[in-house]
Amino acid sequence: MSKSSAVQCFAAFALTTWFAGIACTTVSARDDVPDDVKAAKNPVTLEESEIRYYQRQFKGKCSRCHGIDGTGSGAEAAASGELVRPANLTDAKYMASRTDGELFYQILMGGGERCAMPAFGPESDYAWTDDKIWHMVAFVRRFAKPSDP
User: Fold this and answer.
1) Residues 107-131 pLDDT 10s
2) pTM: predicted TM-score of the whole model, two decimal places
3) What is the Cα–Cα distance from 31 to 37, expressed in whole angstroms?
């Protein structure tokens, strides 16, 4: 193989890998969200006094895959080999594409067959209430908001 052919092959591989990475950030683990849940608006507001609690919850239960900073680059994310990698919660475009109801359902039901995310709903081992899940939705939304100057 000539040097220029090798360079072209590498460039094609790099470009394909880059596009695949972009595609993975826009895919959700769940596409079975019922329409009424998808349309649901978050009924709670995360109070300043609750932020530290949800930071601890996120760190203890979510950061191993989503990363402590929410970028989807936690220690277990790369090794998962799942069809859908952990969401980059800091990606404002991705987060804007997900309704509160979709985020709620993802936390409630877990990743299903497409990723290793466990369910957190009342019937799960974690047994989170709907109220706690809605608060976590409000918390993860904070990752995509621009910080104050």
Assistant:
1) 999 988 778 889 999 999 999 999 9
2) 0.77
3) 12
Q: How many CB atoms lie within 10 A of CB 74?
A: 19
- Output 23-26 pairs: Cβ under 8 A, ≥24 positions apart: 24/84, 24/85, 25/72, 25/85, 25/87, 25/88, 25/91, 25/94, 26/94, 26/97
Structure tokens at 128: 């989170």
Complete domains list, the chain, with CATH: 3-144 (1.10.760.10)
Give one DSSP letter per residue of 74-143, joined into a string: -TTTTT---SSPPP-TT-HHHHHHS-HHHHHHHHHH--TTSS-PPP-STTSSS---HHHHHHHHHHHHGG
What residue has token string 């072209």?
A: 8
